[in-house]
């Protein structure tokens, strides 16, 4: 994440982690969908999918325009760049009501997608598309918002005064936003139900299962690691026990006495009588790192039971 001026810029992959840490203090039950119309892929000076225009210039430019309209800050809470990066408006944090759809902003979050997605305009780049889908899935999860066209709403489904039309109706809708070719299909409710909505649902499923899988995988790895430790230590202790028992008559040098006592106390060896120097050294070494600590043995035993 990079913060500069009035925005924080995140990679799409950073968004969920960032969002998880946010505390939401207002009720949000609607996620608005907008395209910026301008800036768009032309003003961003796209060459082979890469924007030549400075990203901060683009973001600050929007804010300056919004301020010139008498708004208190950037209109939207979140902006999705053409390359999929996500900008957070610092002067319109998630807890601030946005200026997205006149008369219909209370309880809403405003997301602006950079581009002009009207017919004949820009074709949304794959990275941006993916980021848009991921962003709405993360927001739906965090804010517990149902993924449907009553809660993820296009600007075009409202009149200019903010009355709910529930669909794009030419002549009645305030705007075509997010574009008559948005998501490669259109700005109608049925287009959303065909394209964006199922994509978000699929992404949410992937996020949930992905997290689960990752945790499962980590746990499995951890278990395998500990299993190996238990096995190798068990073997080492058995080998030591054998060696210690071979010449069990003689008293060990006093230097090894404490280690042997500790090992015997937890049942790792059965006698403290030994004269095998390498065996004694190994026992002392194991003792030095705390292998014969009763708490460690208990830990190993409890783990073995779990496995
Ligand atoms: Zn709009």
Strand count, sense and barrel status of the largest sheet are:
7 strands, mixed
**What is Rg?**
32 Å
With strands numbered from the N-terminus, the spatial order across the biggest sheet is: 1-2-7-6-8-3-9
Give the CATH architecture of the largest domain. 3-Layer(aba) Sandwich
Mean pLDDT: 89
Bound molecules: zinc ion
| Poorly predicted tracts of residues | none
The tally of domains stands at 2
- Count of distinct strands: 9
- State the secondary-structure class: alpha/beta
The rounded distance between the terminal residues' Cα atoms is 40 Å
Helix tally? Answer: 8
User: What helical percentage do the residues reach?
Assistant: 40-55%
CATH T-level fold name of the largest domain: Lysozyme-like
How would the blueprint of this fold be written?
Elements: E1 2-4, E2 7-10, H1 12-20, E3 30-35, E4 46-47, E5 50-51, H2 55-68, E6 78-80, E7 86-89, E8 108-113, H3 126-143, E9 152-154, H4 189-194, H5 196-246, H6 257-265, H7 277-288, H8 294-306
Parallel strand pairs: 3-8, 3-9, 6-8
Antiparallel strand pairs: 1-2, 2-7, 4-5, 6-7
Helix pairs in contact: 1-3, 3-5, 5-7, 6-7
The chain binds zinc ion.
Residues 34, 155, 175, 177 line the site of zinc ion (ZN).
Description:
- 43% of the residues lie in helices and 11% in strands.
- The protein is α/β, with parallel strands linked by helices.
- It folds into two domains: 2-194, Peptidoglycan recognition protein-like (Lysozyme-like), CATH 3.40.80; 220-306, no CATH class.
- A seven-stranded mixed β-sheet has the order 1-2-7-6-8-3-9, sandwiched between helices.
- A hairpin with a 2-residue loop joins strand 4 (46-47) and strand 5 (50-51).
- The longest helix is centred in the last third of the chain and has 51 residues, at 196-246.
- The chain is elongated.
- The chain starts with a strand and ends with a helix.
- The model has no long low-confidence stretch (mean pLDDT 89).
- Bound molecules: zinc ion.
- The site of zinc ion has 4 residues, from loops.
